[in-house]
Amino acid sequence: AQSVTQPDIHITVSEGASLELRCNYSYGATPYLFWYVQSPGQGLQLLLKYFSGDTLVQGIKGFEAEFKRSQSSFNLRKPSVHWSDAAEYFCAVANTNAGKSTFGDGTTLTVKP
Amino acid sequence: DAGVIQSPRHEVTEMGQEVTLRCKPISGHNSLFWYRQTMMRGLELLIYFNNNVPIDDSGMPEDRFSAKMPNASFSTLKIQPSEPRDSAVYFCASSLAGTSGEQFFGPGTRLTVL
Fold first, then answer.
1. Predicted confidence (pLDDT) per residue in B80-111, tens digit
2. Using an 8 Å Cβ cutoff, are B71 and A69 in contact?
3. Using CA atoms in the order A100, A94, B105, B31, what is the torsion angle rounded to 10 degrees?
4. Of B16, B18, B38, B40, which one is least surrounded by beta carbons within 10 A?
């Protein structure tokens, strides 16, 4: 069965600092991996996705993520955080045959001025 | 493209009343998902449909919850009777099965049961 672990429930960074959110997955085949962001009062929005090719993927809002098969990880990074990045971030792995995704429990990002 | 549409956006009801949440998926998508999100339990998958057929309803909390998808462009989630512990934000999402599996989420319905 597929699963996703986001070890950090809550992270606080200063505006302008770099950010890394961790994600570990368990999946029997080549995974389809996603990062979603949820701003307060809104639905989830896709940041980026990986399913083949270059293991470093670029997303919207200056985010990137690196797929590391040996570590079963798909960590999200941003070199310089903006106050508007404060939100909850979800990592997910997809079973593409069913179109169903398994989501992690989310990491809440707080940005200090 | 209008995205996934949910209605109502907010619903306040009294315990024991019937509540119906509605969802219109993105045109052409063949998978539809209902999620519930609370502070205590996070994001929970309640049920999902593929080609209008319920595939997995193991996340539906109890018999008070039911979901239907009469056609490819409409789904409902019904709670009857509602209870205060059902208060949550309910999200609908759709995707195209057989592709990358990216899900598109609606804005959610915030349900408050008094």
1. 999 999 999 999 999 987 676 789 999 999 99
2. no
3. -30
4. B40
